[in-house]
Amino acid sequence: MILSKRLHNEKKISHGFFNKNGGSSNGIYRSLNCGPGSNDKKNKIKKNLRIVKNKFGKKTKNIFLVHQIHSNKFIFINEKFKSYEKKFKVDAIITNQKKLPIAVLTADCIPLLLYDNQKNIIAAIHAGWRGAFKGIVEKVIKFMTKKGCKKRNIIAAIGPCIKQNNYSVKEDFQKKFLKKDAKNKIFFKKKKKMIYFNLTNFVKYQLKSNKITKIDTINIDTFDKKNNFFSARQSLRLKHDDYGRNISIIMIN
């Protein structure tokens, strides 16, 4: 389990970014695959989720997951929320409820965790390029401020994801970003006729543009095999027909 230094200093919450280590799955899912959307055995995934949950305490509620769709949609869980068993099609979860671990699943995309240490509100965001491009980061921050959060109090932790040197993209991908804003060219670099995209800096820029200044970036590349993370791109390169998912969690104690 990898921790953000900034979030680790906050005693009212627990959090963690998990890689492949410490689970029960086999084969290409070895070993801590937490993705119900994968083709791994369902009993193995449930066991892996229990392993992760228990690291946050035996009395915590079950980990709250959603059906991620690369959107800018989110869900807010407050004391009136009842539908814990339903899988909502969103890409971010916001809550003010204690002992409820909220989590996102990734396999190269950014897991982004937010915490306002005055209002005691947390958020977990699945920020792939599509969701980030559609403005999910800004939408979550705006909602948190509507709930009374102050931007100066929000701490953001950008978790392990694919880094620029391994994130090659096609020209039409770059054009899409430049058409939206010419300033986006700073997130691309050319090397040996290939174009590479910096997802980390793109999300960091969106945080800063929304006046979030307390930002912690975990510079671990999920594509690099030595870091032992599930990676969609690495699986594609190895010609696997599926891949596991890494889980990233935050909870109010």
General description of the model:
With 253 residues, the chain is of the alpha+beta class. It has one domain (5-163, 198-252): 4-Layer Sandwich (CNF1/YfiH-like putative cysteine hydrolases). It has helices at 5-8, 42-54, 129-134, 136-146, 171-180, 199-209, 232-237, and strands at residues 13-17, 75-77, 92-95, 102-106, 110-116, 121-127, 154-158, 168-169, 188-191, 194-197, 214-217, 246-252. The protein has a six-stranded mixed beta sheet with strand order 2-3-6-5-7-11. Strands 1-12-4 form a three-stranded antiparallel beta sheet, with no helix packed on it. Strands 8-10-9 form a three-stranded antiparallel beta sheet. The mean pLDDT is 97.
CATH topology: CNF1/YfiH-like putative cysteine hydrolases
Q: Based on the structure given, which CATH architecture is correct?
A: 4-Layer Sandwich
CATH class: Alpha Beta
Can you give the helix content as a percent range?
10-25%
Entry keywords:
253 residues, alpha+beta, CNF1/YfiH-like putative cysteine hydrolases, 6-stranded mixed sheet, 3-stranded antiparallel sheet, 7 helices, 12 strands, globular
List the helices and strands and how they pair.
Elements: H1 5-8, E1 13-17, H2 42-54, E2 75-77, E3 92-95, E4 102-106, E5 110-116, E6 121-127, H3 129-134, H4 136-146, E7 154-158, E8 168-169, H5 171-180, E9 188-191, E10 194-197, H6 199-209, E11 214-217, H7 232-237, E12 246-252
Parallel strand pairs: 2-3, 7-11
Antiparallel strand pairs: 1-12, 3-6, 4-12, 5-6, 5-7, 8-10, 9-10
